[in-house]
Amino acid sequence: MMLQHPFIPTARLLIDDAVLEAVMRNRQLKSTDAESGGILLGLRRDDHLHVTDLTTPYPDDKRSRTSFQRKDKAHQARAFLAWRDSGGVVDYIGEWHSHPERHPSPSPIDSREWNSICLFQHKPMVFLIAGTLASLWLGVGDTSDIRQAMPTVV
Ligand SMILES: [Zn+2]
């Protein structure tokens, strides 16, 4: 999937199909399903952002119907291995999680967490929320703001 970068009109936000498929498999389709989530891995070329991989929940994550806290150290370990094995090309590039709603949008908690990640990382980061339909919220954040790439249906 290719979208326009919401801050830089000439740049693209690219998400590999395998990433979208994994996100779709981790949606909260049953009324008892807890939120899923993880980190997005990918590369930056000029201003383009390309998401190539992701992590999915690990045992030590804290999950409920309406929250996902990434607590398991395995996410960070995967990011480090991807970075090392790619010679520093692939790196931590964002965050994703699911919401138990049809058309997802960021909660106030999401916005706060994403803002602090952007301030810490000091480079544009990708944020993705998967709803229960084939509907995603997809955006980019930098140190000033978080903007939706566009309403997205897979
Ligand atoms: Zn959320």
Please describe the structure with a list of short key phrases separated by commas or semicolons:
single chain; 154 residues; alpha+beta; Cytidine Deaminase, domain 2; nine-stranded mixed sheet; two-stranded antiparallel sheet; 11 strands; binds zinc ion
Strand content: 35-45%
Structurally, the number of domains stands at: 1
Query: In oligomeric terms, what are we looking at?
Result: single chain
The CATH class, by name, is Alpha Beta
Distance between the termini: 8 Å
Helical content class:
10-25%
Report the principal-axis shape: globular
In this structure, how is the largest beta sheet organized?
A: 9 strands, mixed
Low-confidence stretches: none
Rg, Cα atoms, Å: 14 Å
| Number of strand elements | 11
Assign the CATH topology. Cytidine Deaminase, domain 2
Label the CATH architecture. 3-Layer(aba) Sandwich
Structural topology:
Layout (H helix, E strand, L loop, with lengths): L1 E3 L7 E4 L1 H9 L11 E9 L2 E7 L7 E3 L2 E3 L4 H12 L5 E8 L9 H14 L3 E6 L4 E7 L4 E3 L3 E2 L1
The structure holds zinc ion.
How would you describe this protein?
With 154 residues, this protein is an alpha+beta fold. The chain has one domain (2-153): Cytidine Deaminase, domain 2. The chain contains three helices and eleven strands, in the order E-E-H-E-E-E-E-H-E-H-E-E-E-E. Strands 1, 2, 3, 4, 7, 8, 9, 10 and 11 form a nine-stranded mixed β-sheet that branches. A two-stranded antiparallel ribbon has the order 5-6. The chain is globular, with a radius of gyration of 14 Å. The model has no long low-confidence stretch (mean pLDDT 95). Bound molecules: zinc ion (ZN). The site of zinc ion (ZN) has 5 residues, from loops.
